[in-house]
Design goal:
Blueprint lengths: L1 H21 L3 E5 L4 E6 H59 L3 H6 L1 H9 E5 L5 E5 L2
Antiparallel strand pairs: 1-2, 3-4
Length: about 140
């Protein structure tokens, strides 16, 4: 990988040097509101190329970050929707369980449950069974 990077760097340097040597005429640069001193055309081309590459890289990073944020927002919205559905389903299950009859109610009816839950068999001191209310 380093070798490939070194070759690309060498080729770009050679290309830049070729531009400077091939375009050695002096050119005046008009910057709309001011006038820059005359400079070599090849050097001006290289400066414009470098400036364009830098601006392009910065814009592409900015656009990529915006797209990455949009992807993250859409992923989080899907996860939020999924969690909302799970919460709704859990609330339905809780409501069903809260209103569902217990086993005693289903078998004996609602009135038998109250009597059976409030009484409990215990041995008294005499060894006989007696019923008393649970605390």
């Amino acid at each position: 990988m380093r070798f490939l990077l070194f070759v690309l760097l060498f080729l770009s340097f050679a290309y830049s040097l070729g531009l400077v040597l091939a375009n050695n005429t002096e050119v005046g640069v008009n910057l709309l509101f001011s006038q820059a001193p005359t400079m070599n055309l090849g050097l001006l081309l290289i400066l414009c190329l470098i400036l364009g590459i830098i601006i392009g890289i910065l814009l592409s990073l900015l656009i990529f970050r915006v797209l990455q944020n949009k992807w993250e927002i859409s992923r989080l919205q899907k996860a939020n929707t999924n969690l909302q559905e799970q919460l709704t389903q859990a609330n339905v299950v809780i409501d069903r369980q809260a209103t569902a009859p217990t086993v005693e109610e289903a078998v004996y009816g609602a009135t038998a449950t109250n009597v059976q839950d409030t009484t409990e068999s215990h041995l008294n001191k005499g060894g006989t069974l007696s019923k008393r209310k649970r605390d």
